[in-house]
Fold:
Amino acid sequence: MDITQTLYFMLPNADSAKNALKEMLRSHIGIGKIHFLGKRGELPSELPEASVFQKTDITHAAKIGILAGGFIGMVSGMAVLLFPPGGLVFGLITVPFGTVLGAVVGVWSATMIGSALPNTKLEAFQPEIEQGKVLMIVDVPQSRVDEISVQVGKNPNAVLRHLDPTMASA
Structure:
């Protein structure tokens, strides 16, 4: 099992981004692991654009929503079980049902909100992106971070801006 890290490289323009993409592909980084973020409408079509998951806070919001919704649903289920409205009788299934229902509603509502919010990790890059620079986001195995950093570092215009440990992969 290897930890995947996200590398963020700031490139001066789209031409540098195209060259960096070629270098990543030559380094056997899959096209699905390389994403670019540029000024709205100015990113060439041959550069894979960052996904909604990378551009927004949808993933973070979903995590919070499922936890908060599940907790609220569980508490609500216990309240209904302990203090049944109108003398109705509820079974023990009420608590897990309330938990699942709360988690579903929580994740749905939180992702709706999170999809409208920009990714807080990318806020630091926004001024440079607005100036026409291009952000390259690359997910690489931990064991290749140094190698890829050196490879991209050969481009005098590329600047490694941030390392972000993201997830474990099999």
In short: Residues 58-114 form one domain. The longest helix spans residues 58-82. The chain has six helices and four strands. The mean pLDDT is 85.
